[in-house]
Every structure is written in C-alpha cells, then in structure tokens.
Prior knowledge:
Radius of gyration of chain B: 18 Å
Shape of chain B: elongated
InterPro entries (chain A): ABC/ECF_trnsptr_transmembrane, ECF_transporter_component
Radius of gyration of chain A: 22 Å
Structural class of chain A: mainly alpha
Number of strands of chain A: 0
Membrane topology (chain A): Multi-pass membrane protein
Pfam families (chain A): CbiQ
Distance between the termini of chain A: 60 Å
Oligomer: heterodimer
Order of helices and strands of chain A: HHHHHHHHHH
Subcellular location (chain A): Membrane
Shape of chain A: flat
Keywords (chain A): Cell membrane, Membrane, Transmembrane, Transmembrane helix
Number of helices of chain A: 10
Helix content of chain A: over 70%
Amino acid sequence: MSGTSPQLGTSALGVTVPAPPEGAVSRRTLDPRTAVAILLAASITIMAPGGLLFVPAALVAGMLLAVSERAWRRVLALPLAAATAAAVAYLLPLAAPWPILGIIGVMGGFSLRLVAVAGIAAHLIETVPPTRFTAALRSMRVPHAFTVSGSVLLRFVPTIIAEARAVRDAMRLRGLGGWLDMLRHPVRSIEYFTVPLIASSLRSAEDLSASALLRGLGSQPRPTSMHPPRFGPADVVAVIVVAALVTATLLWEAGR
Amino acid sequence: MSPRDLINIGVFGALYIVTVGLFNLLEFISPVMTLVTSALSIVAAGVPFMLFLTRVKHAGMVTVLAVIVTGFMLLIGSPPVTLLVGVLGALIAEALLYAGRYRSRQLSVLAYAAFSTWFVGLFLPMFYARDEFLSSPYMAEMDPDYVEKLDSLLSPGVLIAFDLSTVVFGLIGGALGLRLLDKHFRKAGLV
C-alpha cells in the first residue's frame, strides 16, 4: 500500500547489532530497567486510591527527565496539560451544579493522573530503542515467549502506523472517512479501514518473519548483546532524585 | 510454541494496538467521547483478533498476546491493574477456545468478548478514585444534594454496567470480525 516494507536490516528481533547513534549508549541516559522501574512505581502509586498526592512528584520527575534529554517542548507541555486537566477536574464542576459536569470533572481528574504517568512514559519511549529494551527484558529473565513476541510488536507498530496513514489517505481520496462519517456509519468505516490495513500489514509481516527466522530469532541459545545493559551514574542520580521527591511528598502530607 | 507463532503473536499484537489506538483518537474531541471511542475500538479490534484466531491453534497464545498488549499499554501510562485484568480475560478466552477445540466459531466470538474485558482495567481507577473526588474541598462547597446525585451516577451499578458493556461490544466485534473474515479475507486467501 504505502511501499513501506519492514527494514529487514534492523535489529529489533533478538539479535543485537550496534546501530549508531542509538546503539552507542551514552553515559547520560538511564538504563532501561531504571526507567521502567520509575514508570511502574509512578503508575502504581498514582493509580492507587489516594494517588493524587503523588501527581506533583511525578510531574517534576517527568519534567526533569525531559530536561535530561533536552526535550524542551515536553518540559513546557507537561505542566500545561496537567494544568488543563486540573482545571477541568476542579473548576468545571463549580460552574454549574449539573451532574454531567461532575462526571466530566471526574474524567478530568483521571486525565490528570494519566498525564503525570505519561510524562515519564514519554521519556522511556523517546530514549529507549526496542533493541535496548528487549536486551533489558532479557537480562531481567523475562520468559522467551514474551521477549520475542514483544520485540516483534515494538518493531512492527511503526510499520503498521505507516500503513494506517496510507489507508487513511486512500480513503480520503475516495471521499470516505472523516470523524463525522465514522460516527454516522461506524461499522462501515471499521470495515473500510481495518480490511486494507490488515491485508497490507500481513504482506510485510511475511517478509519480516522470514528474515527474522533466518537471522536466528527463537533459536535456543540466549543471544548476547553488543551493549549489555549496565547501571551507570545516571541511574544513581535518578534513584536519589526519585527518593527525594517521594520523601518531600510524604513530609508535605504529614505536615498538613 | 514455535518462533513463527511468536512472530505471529507480535504482528497481530501490533495490528490490534494500532486499530485500538486509531479509533481511540476520536477521544480528543471531548472527555465524554472516551466511552464511545472505547466501545468503537473494541468493535473494530475484533477484526484483527478473529484473524489472529484463525492462525493460532496453540494453548497459551491468547495469554501471550494479552500480556504483550497490556504490557505495551502499561508502558504508555495505563494503570497496572490492566495487566491483571487482561491476563484473567485471556485465560477465560483460552478455556473457551480449548472447549471448542480451536474450531468453534461461536466460542471464538465469546473468546474475543472475554479478551476485550481488559478495557475495564483502563477505567478502574476512575471508579475507585471517585471517593477522593467527591470528598475534595471543592465538593464540600457544593450542594449536598448535588454531591449525592453525582455519587449515585458513579455507583457500583454503573461500574458493573460498564464492565458488562465491554463484553457486549466484544461480542459485536467478534461477530463483525467473523463476517469480514468470510467476506474479504477468505476470498483473498489470507485465512
């Protein structure tokens, strides 16, 4: 459809090949295991009852991580998104005593939590390529079935997004699609969209799986990494900062 | 499970996620749309899932799919409880598929409905965090009558109705997937 066949030379599938610049791991980036640990800690505490308390700490952590990778736009966007969600959550229900506004407010409060977690997730997605991520999963002894299928998934999502864009363009050319159309005839638009998407994606999947099998995916010995995941000074700094943020939050709560 | 099976799981996992993600984009129109779009994406993702079921005939494959799909959702900020809900739903789906010897069409529709219940996990915190919202200082200023009305709107009954609705949309999605399978993919030799 779009002519984007999977790049068979990339290395997301089990075999780790140096792919500069992303393969050359700088000392400043976090080990994927640290990033995943911070993300999980944030989403577990924030999504738990009473987790709203940890939202400021997670927002600060997300902004610091964005600063560390010099993603200035995210440094600004994160507090803006959080402020919008907070306004919907707390100010909108005051506007009029309608229960519907209250429900939108509850959803706004939920989005506020989501924004706080997503700030940290964005860092992980931006700085950790699938190769390093699977190497980290392997070193955490995650079973073979999950690392292989998970790395195929991470490798394949961008390809399918490209195919989806092509399908959407083709639909537009024929005067189909558009959000209103989709809401008016949901089943028909699902058919028009998913059928070509699946058909074209499966074609590139055939190539991908042939190449991956040839290159030893799923072979019995554990593959080794050119850049085995290692904890570095950046990880120590990150752990100290997170500990400080948690302590500050707890002290603030105790002081109220 | 052979490596080829694992690759297939990854490919269909990616197809599933992209389908769900694209139909969820509508959500940006307004927060109220969240529920409409998740219903729409459950129905839409039935198409790749039913095709997935025609290619996999091994126990455990739906569970692996659930783990990597919900694991990916976890990475982009979903609540961790989603993973748990996803695995439970997938195990039920596996049992249904096994009961039908991986051939039964009706049971595969039911299996998709069971698998779809992982969507419940995405919204669970919104329901158990409601007390926090209802007792916030802002709410204290409101009319108690209003707060009570809001509380009853977000009652456990509504939560259960929402959970059941994912199953209903799962059934619709599974049926639609089967229909499209017969209409398009079987003809094109993709099944």
